[in-house]
Amino acid sequence: MTSPQRTNTAASTCGRRRFLSIAAAAAGVALLPGGLRAEGGDVEPCVWRGVALGARASIRLLHPDRAEARRLIGLAVRELERLEAIFSLYRLDSAVVELNRAGRLPDPPIELVELLARAGEISRASGGAFDVTVQPLWRRYRDHFAASGTDVLPQVSDLMPLVDWRGVRVEPREISFARQGMAITLNGIAQGYVTDRIADLLRRNGVERTLLDLGETRTVGDRGAGRPWRVGVADPADPVRSLATLDCFDRAVASSGGYGTVFDRAGRYSHLIDPRTGRTAPVLRGITVTAPDATLADALSTAFSVMDETEIREVARRIGGIDVYQLSPRQIAQLV
Q1: Mind giving me the DSSP string for 93-143?
Q2: How many domains does the chain have?
Q3: How far apart are CA 318 and CA 186, in angstroms?
Q4: Which of 96, 183, 215, 279 is the most exposed place for a label (fewest CB within 10 A)?
């Protein structure tokens, strides 16, 4: 799991750690900013592009009424900003920052209660490979390599007692930590959760066809005439190159990989840390998961990045309803 970058929703360019983009089906077709292919259809799409939860983001909405489409996108962007104010690690007034600072959060936002409850379920299902309490390990790696200037691994054994998802007590009236020094990061699940919330909001307002790329990808309906939305999966060794294209109807897609950010100058230690061992995930290995919702796809792609193939297959088959792809330079293989 990884700790989030600074978040905002201004229209700007931001590097992405997961490098999942909406890609063209054929090689050589130009992509619009944000990775969206310029395609015709029975309805002209209304498109918003910006930054959400530290990643380049876009909303591509198909609606016969252009004014209504713009209104709905405005509604979605305001909701996006509201949710970021809850989950951000870089806003001093966010709920997550307050929880990490004080070790408890009275009267938490219902969205944080809901998301942490879901995170706990996925932690249990993955045998702890997904764990929001990995934040102390991430801080140790970041601070060690920033200060030491060496490529020697930091000592993390003293922090391992703080990394345990079961130590996060989640109740509607209070969230608290079992041990002093614990802290959470939601970057391995919040992008998916926010994506699902925006998809639900648009559906409640009558939207039947949309494609969301808010750090993770979620499709609603088709892109016209029964055609699927197409989601490109990037090559870990060359993230601007698409290894494959997945056809999606009402499906979520998420990718995680150590290739996005590395801690050391030699590029050996990735930002994805196994909560069970304190070791980092391989740099040039990626995982893509498709699932019914983006929350699940996001968290499982994070967990699977630190698991071996046997573990991945066991967990995926137990959960059901998901597809898993393993990515390596120039290669993609479906595991489940």
Answers
A1: TSHHHHHHHHSEEES--HHHHHHHHHHHHHHHHTTTSS-GGGHHHHHHHHH
A2: 2
A3: 24
A4: 279
**Around Cβ 224, how many Cβ atoms within 10 Å?**
15
- In this predicted structure, what is the pLDDT of residue 259? 76
Structure tokens given for 33: 């900013």
- Do 83 and 223 lie in one domain? The reply is yes
Q: Return the pLDDT at 42.
A: 67
Write down which residue in 177, 196, 217 finishes a domain: 177
pLDDT band (50, 70, 90) for residue 77: very high
Give every CB contact of residue 67 below 8 A, 6+ residues apart in sequence: none
| Domain, as residue range, for 300 | 20-89+188-334
Query: Is 235 a member of any domain?
Result: yes
| pLDDT for the residue 27 | 28
The answer to whether residue 94 is domain-embedded is no
Q: What pairing do the DSSP bridges indicate for beta strands 323-328 and 286-291?
A: antiparallel
Predicted TM-score of the model (pTM): 0.87
Does pLDDT of 268 surpass 80?
yes
- Half-sphere CA count of 46, side-chain side, radius 13 A: 17
